[in-house]
Write a structure and sequence with these properties.
With 260 residues, the chain is of the alpha/beta class. It is built from eight helices and twelve strands. It has helices spanning 4-7, 23-28, 34-37, 52-60, 100-106, 150-163, 196-220, 248-251, and strands spanning 12-18, 43-46, 66-67, 79-81, 93-95, 110-114, 136-138, 171-177, 223-228, 234-235, 241-242, 252-259. Helix 6 (150-163) runs parallel beside helix 7. The longest helix has 25 residues, at 196-220.
Length: 260
């Protein structure tokens, strides 16, 4: 396990949620995703929420997806709020705040959110809640689910911010990738229906764009990166469609952590 007490303060920290990515899809595309999987494989985990809004509240509270096994020794949290009375691990970073975003801000981090799906649009009071955790939050129409080049636009915006940031300033950068969320059928020519195949194609597109972001982060210095899905989605399995429901294709998510 990575000792987060050695990471916080010395590394930039990046959290990327690959919105709606299924675990089985991620595994099928490992060989085609050199940027996300070039140094390892996806781990199967269980999400704390079946849709974006619920899952991200848990993530920002320090409750990341948990290993999909019964071995409690592997269920070690990277982040944990202080004074809960619960047992923690020596490698867990304890923050004195209600969420990891403000906890990292207290440690001198500049906190940035680049939104994607509807809950990050800031178009109404509900959609302002999650971006409101951050010192800076950004959303544009071309970051959203209806734009086939959304990840390109999100990464371009992140690169502009990185170019203007002092290398000595530690960053917590959060990116909610919208491209994998439906509609994703436009990543497969000639089809008008979302499917496992179109989500696979969307993931390949996303991986290609994230390579530019990872290269820029490497130039800044050491970066601890977490990449995972907030939930999966059903494409007709057992009669289910979509998410915000209790099915294994929704609850099983891919997870990776690595240092750039």
């Amino acid at each position: 396990m990575i000792d987060m007490n050695q990471i916080v303060g010395s590394h930039d920290i990046v959290m990327i949620t690959l919105d709606t990515l299924r675990y089985d899809v991620a595994k099928l595309e490992e060989e085609n995703c050199p940027n996300l999987c070039g140094s390892g494989s996806w781990e199967k985990r269980h999400t704390p929420g079946s849709f974006t809004y619920a899952a991200h509240h848990a993530f920002f509270g320090g409750f990341l997806p948990t290993p999909a096994n019964t071995d409690k020794s592997s269920h070690i949290r990277l982040f944990h709020t202080k004074d809960t009375g619960l047992r923690t691990h020596p490698h867990t970073w304890l923050f004195d705040a209600p969420d990891i975003v403000s906890g990292l801000e207290n440690e001198g981090y500049r906190t940035i959110c680049i939104g994607g799906v509807i809950f990050f649009t800031k178009k109404n009071k509900l959609a302002k809640v999650l971006p409101g955790y951050f010192q800076e939050s950004y959303w544009r129409m071309n970051f959203g689910v209806t734009n086939p080049r959304s990840t390109e636009h999100q990464v371009n915006h992140a690169l502009k911010l990185l170019e203007k940031t002092d290398p000595a300033q530690r960053l917590f950068l959060f990116l909610n990738v919208s491209a994998i969320h439906g509609p994703n059928h436009y990543f497969v020519k000639g089809t008008s229906k979302d499917s496992v195949e179109s989500q696979r194609a969307a993931l390949r597109y996303v991986d290609g764009e994230l390579g530019r972001l990872f290269d820029a982060l490497r130039k800044r210095g050491k970066t601890f990166c977490m990449a995972f899905s907030d939930h999966g989605t059903a494409y007709g399995e057992d009669g289910y469609e979509g998410h915000r429901l209790a099915h294994e294709v929704v609850w099983n998510v891919p997870y990776r952590e690595f240092i750039l």
